[in-house]
Amino acid sequence: MFWPMLAIALGFLGLAVLGVLAVRVFAEVRRLGRQVAQSSQRINVAAGELERSAESLARTGDALR
């Protein structure tokens, strides 16, 4: 009777460990998603600034002709 009870206890502990790890993975994925969204926003802002600078540079080049 000892071995079946030990197997059940170890199975339960294994499931508990998997549950804890699943929660940690979920939390890290959410954090990574927030970082990706923030990076995407920063890239969009930088692209806009680059576009405005390129337009200004093009106007300056046209004025030199």
UniProtKB/TrEMBL annotation:
Tell me the superkingdom of the source.
Bacteria
Official protein name in the record: Uncharacterized protein
